[in-house]
Design brief:
Blueprint: H1 2-27, H2 32-54
Helix pairs in contact: 1-2
Length: 84
């Protein structure tokens, strides 16, 4: 588990920084692409670490059947929390 977390963090930062370097090289905007994408890579890596540690492995927008909506009437808006 620790190896997975470490690799995910390092790879996210490395890939983002590499893309920033490539964009800088292509557009001649040195060092802004590296700087911006480095911080985005850190954020993505930390999000991956959080997901791995907390056990969140479902894709964005996916809801398991019955989770946070069990007992709702068919056709009821799942975001409507008012009990009318």
């Amino acid at each position: 588990m620790g190896l997975r977390i470490g690799i995910e963090l390092v790879v996210a930062i490395g890939v983002a920084t590499g893309l920033g370097w490539a964009i800088d090289h292509w557009l001649g905007t040195r060092p802004w692409g590296i700087i911006v994408l480095f911080f985005l890579g850190v954020a993505a890596g930390m999000l991956n670490v959080y997901r791995a540690v907390s056990g969140i492995s479902t894709p964005v927008g996916y809801r398991r059947p019955g989770a946070n909506g069990a007992g709702r009437r068919p056709g009821q808006d799942p975001w409507d929390d008012d009990e009318n």
